[in-house]
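User: My collaborator sent over this chain with a note saying "see what the structure looks like." That's all I know about it. Can you take a look?
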Amino acid sequence: MVRSNGLPTYFVPDVAYHMSKWNRGFKRVINVQGADHHGTVDRVRAGLQALGLPAGYPEYVLHQMVRVIQDGEEVKFSKRAGSGMTLRELYDQVGVDVARYFFQMRKPDGHLLFDLDVALDQSDKNPVYKVQYAHARMCSIFRKAEEGVGADVSSPDVSLLSHEVERELVKQLGDFPGVVARAAEQASPHIVCDYLEQTASVANSWYHAGNPSRNPELAVLTADPALRGARLALARAVQIVLRNGLELLAIEAPVRMVRDEQGE
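Assistant: Without extra context I'll predict from the sequence alone. Here is the result:
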């Protein structure tokens, strides 16, 4: 840790910083760094163990390098030429929510292809918009209910949710606590992203199943008050799960979106 000339090595501040974190009560620390820092891991841990901290502290998540794709081709960056893109520039171009989601939706040990065309797409092709649209759609259901038949979900009879598409959605929502626990244990937010996209797909299938052109008997705002209450309770559960999942990723759960305002 100290060179032959008496000067400390560059990773001494890392050891001191993590010792300070430990002394301030942070017993679990996760460092997110680029894969080119892999040589730092053992040296910092060894320094901390020499100071009495337990083996394996801190934890590390090493990310592969990010490649940016636009119009089907990789955008070339060069440190030597001074060409690149800062995170702030990326935020300004695609928005904070999209950038955050894209960085969290892939396993850290896999190469991240940041597709600008997909990131700028405001349709279901963009995974973060897909999830946000599903949340906004549930909010739209309650606005329509409150304007008409009411939106009371205080004592629903969920046993009335007997259709296959309803049961599939209930099962999907029930998996949420386990998904969160697994993502936390593995320090892998992409697990939450995968779950939210699957939940949005199942929720959208349930919503569209009740379209007048398909099966109006499956409409959420059905004339039967008991069945309507059960389906509204299911819509509320979808709304809560999607909102909580997005909040874990520090991403907004909008109650209105452009497509939502255009009749959904």
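A starting point for your reply to your collaborator: Residues 260-264 have pLDDT under 50 and may be disordered.
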